């Protein structure tokens, strides 16, 4: 079935090729689902060293789509290749911009805690080269769908450089904000390297307090903007969550919507997951205990079926509430539980958890690296998942946890508020409860929620079991979210006639 709707999907990371966070999961799953719905979608993303390593590990090779691509940028002709592969288990073409000088690096965005100095140019290149590729392929998109600041300049180029282009001139721009905290702020001097005229440097376009704000440019030049949950779409229009862009966002309020992410059940599903030692389902949960014992063994924790295993996975950043976890950690350690952490991020948290792990070896396992496989094993083996985020655009880990029967304990903000129902007498009776939530951003509020979870786990296993069933039964597949994107594409494409 074809809908005659063409979408150019530009993203700085996509699973299974490259990943630093949730955006990669989204970019690896949403295009495939859209294609199933009949949308003709092409994905464009950089060919990082990580991507090359992925292909090597799979003993596969992408094909060459354009051998000698050229793009005028930064006052000179840039030369590179474009490679192509399929998004696994789908017909979607993914195009990789193979430009080693820009993308053949250790990491995606930064190294040793420092952003790459030329990030403005690297992602101006991604944004413009993606549009240029569309022209080379003769692919006339109805919608150019950019994701986060790294591809947001595509909206600016589309409406300026390519405004009169016969192929791209009619395309509309959609920007999805996966995290407003990252805006791409640069010194004014970089404008030239993106071939953007100084006339764009004013508060109604790219300027933000004397600097370039790439995300702001994307917001202003896009025909539609969305974020990854309904609550976050509202929150970012307020001072507390707007990171200085609340004014711009609320001025554009009419074009900002929220669509919650789905999860990829072919990757995150305890019935099929090849990373975990035993598979299980809501009908037969026996495998979960094996996963727990196995995880304890692997991480050097005492193997104990009956102790509450509390896990957290994520970037070690204040956003994820690690300042609360640190502040409440000693109290947490007094409770009857084991704690497993998987994450990388701010050096101060690395130091903190290393120190604590040394002191509490039988209680705390701190895994301060990136390990996709271990993330699956933790989701399967844990009893509770702690996610006390300061803000959370959507959050994927709580959705993975639900599927794995691992009860989320969250701060009720953004996507966490939209997906987690706090266990109260009433919500338990109506079989809606699927986790524990707290509102105040304070470690005592977090500790109270953890204690409530522990009390239920130890004192009322039957109700705990009910929570697990509710959690595991809820469907958060991409299908429903993709349908909403389809609606948004249609609406955005139609706005062309306005
Ligand atoms: P964000 O995108 O803000 O980082 P999300 O919860 O939306 O947060 O998604 C984070 C994704 O990154 C999840 O798939 C999570 O499992 C994964 N992840 C984060 N840190 C690690 C790590 N150290 N090892 C493995 N996976 C990780």
List keywords for this structure.
alpha/beta, 6-stranded parallel beta sheet, 20 helices, 20 strands
- The overall pLDDT, averaged over residues, is 96
Q: Identify the strand order in the major beta sheet.
A: 3-4-5-2-1-8-9-13-14
- N-to-C span: 28 Å
Total DSSP helices: 20
- Unreliable segments (pLDDT under 50, ≥5 consecutive)? none
- Total strands: the figure is 20
Q: State the share of residues found in helices, binned by percent.
A: 25-40%
- Helix-strand makeup class: alpha/beta
The radius of gyration computed from the alpha-carbon positions, rounded to a whole number of angstroms, is 23 Å
What does the main sheet amount to? 9 strands, mixed
Beta percentage is: 15-25%
- Principal-axis shape equals globular
Q: Which small-molecule species are bound to the chains here?
A: adenosine-5'-diphosphate
Could you describe the 3D structure shown?
By secondary structure, this protein is of the alpha/beta class. 39% of the residues lie in helices and 19% in strands. It contains 20 helices and 20 strands. Strands 3-4-5-2-1-8-9-13-14 form a 9-stranded mixed beta sheet, with helices on both faces. A 6-stranded parallel beta sheet has the order 17-16-15-18-19-20, sandwiched between helices. A 3-stranded antiparallel beta sheet has the order 10-12-11. α5 packs across α6 (214-221) and α10 crosses α14 (372-381). The two termini are 28 Å apart. The structure holds adenosine-5'-diphosphate. The site of adenosine-5'-diphosphate has 18 residues, from α1 and α14.
């Amino acid at each position: 079935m074809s809908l005659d709707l063409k979408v150019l999907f530009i993203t700085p990371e996509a699973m299974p090729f490259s990943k630093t966070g949730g955006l990669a999961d989204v970019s690896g799953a949403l295009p495939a689902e859209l294609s199933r719905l009949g949308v003709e979608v092409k994905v464009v993303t950089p060919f990082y060293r990580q991507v090359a390593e992925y292909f090597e590990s799979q003993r596969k090779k992408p094909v060459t789509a354009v051998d000698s691509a050229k793009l005028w940028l930064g006052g000179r002709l840039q030369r590179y290749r474009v490679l192509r592969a399929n998004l696994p288990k789908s017909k979607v073409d993914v195009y990789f911009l193979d430009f080693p000088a820009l993308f053949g690096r250790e990491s995606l965005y930064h190294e040793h805690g420092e952003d790459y100095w030329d990030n403005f140019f690297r992602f101006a290149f991604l944004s413009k080269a993606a549009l240029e590729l569309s022209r080379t392929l003769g692919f006339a998109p109805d919608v150019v769908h950019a994701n986060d600041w790294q591809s947001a300049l595509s909206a600016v180029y589309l409406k300026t450089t390519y405004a009169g282009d016969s192929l791209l001139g009619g395309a509309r721009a959609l920007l999805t904000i996966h995290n407003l905290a990252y805006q791409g702020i640069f010194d004014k001097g970089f404008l030239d390297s993106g071939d953007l005229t100084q006339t764009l440097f004013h508060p109604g376009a790219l300027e933000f307090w004397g600097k370039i704000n790439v995300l702001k440019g994307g917001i202003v030049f896009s025909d539609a903007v969305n974020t990854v949950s309904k609550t976050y779409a509202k929150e970012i229009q307020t001072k507390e969550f707007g990171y200085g862009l609340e004014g711009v966002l609320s001025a554009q309020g009419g074009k900002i919507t929220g669509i919650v992410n789905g999860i990829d059940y072919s990757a995150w599903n305890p019935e099929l997951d090849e990373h975990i030692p035993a598979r299980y389902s809501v009908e037969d949960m026996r495998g979960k205990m094996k996963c727990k014992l196995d995880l304890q063994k692997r991480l050097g924790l005492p193997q104990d079926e009956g102790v509450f295993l509390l896990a957290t996975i994520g970037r070690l950043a204040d956003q994820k509430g690690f300042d609360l976890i640190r502040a409440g950690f000693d109290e947490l350690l007094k409770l009857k539980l084991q704690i497993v952490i998987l994450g990388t991020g701010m050096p101060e948290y690395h130091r903190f958890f290393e120190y604590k792990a040394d002191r509490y070896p039988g209680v705390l396992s701190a895994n301060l690296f990136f390990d996709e496989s271990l993330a699956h094993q933790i989701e399967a083996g844990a009893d509770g998942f702690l996610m006390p985020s300061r803000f959370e655009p959507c959050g994927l880990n709580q959705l993975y946890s639900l599927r794995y029967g691992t009860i989320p304990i969250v701060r009720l903000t953004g996507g966490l508020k939209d997906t987690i129902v706090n266990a109260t007498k009433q919500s338990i009776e109506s079989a809606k409860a699927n986790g524990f939530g707290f509102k105040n951003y304070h470690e005592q509020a977090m500790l109270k929620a953890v204690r409530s979870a522990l009390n239920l786990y130890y004192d009322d296993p039957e109700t705990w079991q009910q929570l697990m069933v509710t959690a595991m039964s809820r469907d958060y597949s991409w299908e429903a979210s993709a349908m909403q994107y389809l609606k948004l594409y249609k609406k955005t494409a139609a706005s062309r006639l306005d």
